[in-house]
Amino acid sequence: MSEHPSFVCLPGAMPVHSSSAEGYWGQMSLSSLPFDFEWDEPIRNTLLDDDDERDLELAEQLGLLRDEAIFGIAVAAAQWVVARVDGVAPAADVRDALQRIEAMWALCADLHYARLTDPPEFGGQAPPKAEEPLWVCRTLLFWIYGAAVLGEDLQGECMSLILLARQVMGSHTGFSTWLSQAIEKAEAPYSLGDDDPDDEDSQLIWKPVPPEFFWPTFTHTTREAAQELVDAYLAGLDPATNPYLRDAHDMRTHGFSGKPYGW
Hints:
- The protein is mainly α.
- Helix content is 45%, strand content 0%.
- It has one domain.
- The chain is built from nine helices and no strands.
């Protein structure tokens, strides 16, 4: 059996630019792969922890990146999780997760865009069903949102989402291949080592991270080009159709001084 998806496009599945939160991952049939992953209460609890000891090598790799890159990799990992359970988990939960992901990419552009809430308490569907991993994904997105808006360390929760995606992929190594190359891809434009050590505020202003940055076919060129893609993404959003996006009035009420969504 071929190990896919990898960081190389699948035949006939060339990604195209899209403002959808589904992006590249929505074009791959991950849910058709065997649900051969292990899932139980101890695994769930470990994924809801934030201890670097769970994967010291991954923690070290993430620790070399700026927060916006760690955030972006985690949101992309959430897209893997959703694509993995789409068509198996309840459609309403999948849609909710996609709306959260859409809002999180907007949050990466400016903290005023999103207003995530804690997902409802999990109903207790027994594993190995897809419902609980998706609930963990939605919960972790909320926690990462909270850490971002409060200016707290977010690496632990972001690592949890990455480990969740790796868990639900089971024996299929495509995610691990993608992750290694995604981290390597982020090293140049989002290296923590490039920050001025005397500038304590250098991490407070995030560099633009377009949602398609982690697509296999995307090539980063300049910060300005990345910003143009982020602006195009924001312009394609409609807060009237996503409860996790603030509308223009709400954003201004919360202190946003620019043009929300480019309007």
